[in-house]
Amino acid sequence: MALKDLPKEEYVLPGSAACPGCPATIGLRIVLKALGKDTILVVPACCTAVIESWYPSSSFNVPLLNIAFAASAAAASGITSALKKQGKKNINVVVWAGDGGTYDIGIQAMSGAFERETDFIYICYNNQIYSNTGIQRSGATPYGAWTTTTVGGKREFQKDMGAIVRAHNIPYVATACISYPEDLYRKVSKAKEIRGSKYIEILAPCPPGWRFSMDRTIEMGRLAVETGVWPLYEYENGKMTFNGISKAIFEGKFKRKPVEEWLKLQGRFAHLFKPKKDEERIKKFQRHVDEMWEKFRKEFS
Hints:
Layout: H1 23-35, E1 39-43, H2 47-51, E2 64-66, H3 72-86, E3 92-98, H4 100-104, H5 107-115, E4 120-126, H6 161-166, E5 172-177, H7 181-191, E6 197-203, H8 207-210, H9 217-226, E7 233-236, E8 239-242, H10 244-250, H11 260-263, H12 279-300
Parallel strand pairs: 1-2, 1-3, 3-4, 4-6, 5-6
Antiparallel strand pairs: 5-7, 7-8
Helix pairs in contact: 1-7, 3-5
């Protein structure tokens, strides 16, 4: 579907508490267009728990439950069971959580819900940090990135959450990016028609957390895909399909841009370039991305 053909209805209303250029708001706007009004959001502690307020008491025009950091998937499981008991079959129950509430604090409840085959969609908008509480590192923070708790650059690589979720053998797992709204809309539309547990992870480049100008949010997402740092794919019933540029990368039809082109535009990686370029850590980052794609080819070719 072309961007101009997306539904006109808006469920993220003007007057929210979002930062200018906020990727979470961009992503949620597209997600709710795909889901429609018959949707209940479960939101743990994260940026969205702040963004949702103001106009005049909420900026989201769908029912929403705020829940403790660790409990979003458990709460969604309860809502799903209650709706089933009431005979309400066509309401989308959706967790909308950040990477902190997914990779770290919420992973136990999420795993449990997937193991129980809960009929819901779990969406992680991944800005790779605990942005709402002061830009601390999370399990999704990439190697080398500055945060307030990794001032010299993170020493570890991020978790492979895609592999962790795929190991649960749920019907649908997908990645998306706010810079590709048509792809995101299509994947959410598909997920809501599938019964059982679904997981979608959206890359959400964060201007204040990543340290770039707010007008470059979309560019940061596109570069993440073009460098191969963020692959776009769908994993359905054991079959992997890459999408868009990632499909061309996987098939050898598009040469990935060097990761340096993405890193140098973000202040969180500025220490890798000043006062002199840290060739060793940049090359280590590049090797990690290269190895990820080589692993994809070995596993899914």
